[in-house]
Amino acid sequence: MEKVLEIVFNGVSMGAIYALLALGFVMIFKSTGILNFAQGELAMAGAFLCYTFATLAQLPYVLSFVLALAAAGVLGAVVDVVFFRRMVGEPVFSTIMVTVGLACILTSLAGFLWGHDVYSIVSPFTDGTAAVGGLVVSQGSLYTIAVSVLLFLLLLLFFNRSLLGIAMKGTAEDADTAGLMGINVRRIHALAWVLGAVLAAVAGIFLAEQSFVRLSMSHTGIKAMAAAILGGMESLGGAILGGLLIGIVESLAANYLSGMELGNFHFGDIKDVAAFAIMILVLMIRPHGLFGRKKVERV
Fold this sequence. Notes:
mainly alpha, two-stranded antiparallel ribbon, 4 strands, 71% helix, globular
């Protein structure tokens, strides 16, 4: 039983990272209509920024974390102004290709600035363990879950209690009507990119705690997109649930299905396959995701 709980705990930790990335996807998509294929690259950039401050500059970890988030926010604002301010309302395939191009630019720029080696962030949680209800878990995973829950609660308060958050929800529902009511839609779009980039940076830093800082960590963005689609691309709660489901399924599959043999057939490592299989199964039953809504066009 302890082993199962430990596996689920690790799955929740990884799922929290997917959920943070998926929240960024949903926030940008709901506000601007842009499906951001560069979300994983924004996470990678956040991890490299934290590595620069914490390991290279040897600043305290908390200060490095905050500085990396601030820099990621600036990067999100620059991305909005330079790439997407004029793309809102353009055909979906055009905006998707721009985000794919942005992903390539960010990867190339990171390779130029930091190289192609694997790095680690100097962190107080590295190799540390903690006892939780009889389980021995890594401090890094515990820290990931605790900070993610705090961020989820803060986002919930932001969108339901603050005027800015309510304005973002209104703009997501109908940008034209929001503009007529005096909401600065461009500023709301920029804020969505800033928040999306900051959430990606948090996810990237947490991911680096578990698997080091490297260029290929941007591939995690694809799984996070699967989590966002699974939950429903317009639902923040769905993005969180989708991320947690994929994280737990991955963890269970890695421990119980990978390497399994059935007759002469060897399954190999099917951790990634299992996660996407769940997503496909759910979407075949609910094409709009667990919490997505089918749009009804009235004539």
